[in-house]
Design brief:
The protein is an all-alpha fold. The chain contains two helices and no strands. Helices cover 68% and strands 0% of the residues.
Length: 65
Amino acid sequence: MKTNERRYFWLMGTCITLVALAWFVVRLWSVTAAIVMSAVAAVIPPTAVIIANRPWETRHDDDDR
């Protein structure tokens, strides 16, 4: 799997985890914290798409070979 794909899946997994925890666990103790967690989770998908569609970075340490 490509590096960008791995980063995308990690970010989206974090997003799903934040939403699930906010809606099913944290809201029982603090609605404000659940809203903040949901807001953070809402920012992650656009960021993940930008990272997934970023062009491959070239490695400059292999240029001497």
